[in-house]
């Protein structure tokens, strides 16, 4: 499976399915493998940042630089595992965990006021001033029972998102 020019065996497909908690059907994994091979232009067995940025939807995403830290150098199995959070079958916890990782850019297991401000800055650009962002974020945190000095954990994110399921499902085209 390291050589992207080879075909996936039934064993490889089942191994990938198991790795991504059976969130993708076999045909979806085959389609993802074709896409992976297209992105892995030099057939290295992993996808680099530059190759990810060749996907227009990814490059245009205001959080692409944060996401690149998470996806740079993924092999096929980890590529599918990353995408599994976008499956309609993914649990709330799987989806929230990915969102948490986007905010927790230093990977310390905590999200600070500063971390959230950085994401808000990426998302809102020049449409909001830092002062406006701080006001909105302070109000939201206070309403949720947190302060600007609070550190949010994954469990906090799950509690906050517990009443809604983030809309981040992506359909895998099957040939």
Automatic annotation (TrEMBL):
EF-hand domain location: 27-62, 91-126
Keyword Ubl conjugation part of the UniProt annotation: no
Keywords assigned: Calcium
Family matches, as InterPro entries: EF-hand-dom_pair, EF_Hand_1_Ca_BS, EF_hand_dom
A Pfam family recorded for this sequence: EF-hand_7
Any one Gene Ontology molecular-function term assigned to this protein's record: calcium ion binding
UniProt name for this protein: EF-hand domain-containing protein
């Amino acid at each position: 499976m390291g050589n992207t020019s080879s075909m996936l065996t039934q064993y490889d497909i089942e191994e990938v399915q198991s790795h991504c908690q059976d969130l993708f059907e076999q045909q979806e994994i085959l389609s993802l493998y074709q896409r992976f091979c297209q992105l892995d232009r030099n057939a290295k067995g992993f996808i680099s940042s530059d190759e990810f940025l060749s996907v227009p939807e990814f490059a245009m995403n205001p959080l692409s630089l944060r996401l690149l830290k998470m996806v740079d150098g993924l092999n096929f199995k980890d590529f599918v595992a990353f995408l599994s959070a976008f499956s309609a079958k993914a649990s709330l916890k799987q989806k929230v965990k990915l969102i948490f990782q986007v905010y927790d850019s230093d990977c310390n297991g905590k999200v600070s006021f500063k971390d959230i401000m950085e994401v808000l800055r990426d998302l809102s650009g020049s449409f909001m001033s830092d002062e406006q962002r701080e006001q909105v974020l302070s109000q939201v945190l206070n309403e949720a029972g947190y302060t600007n000095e609070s550190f949010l954990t994954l469990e906090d994110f799950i509690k906050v998102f517990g009443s809604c399921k983030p809309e981040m499902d992506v359909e895998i085209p099957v040939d």
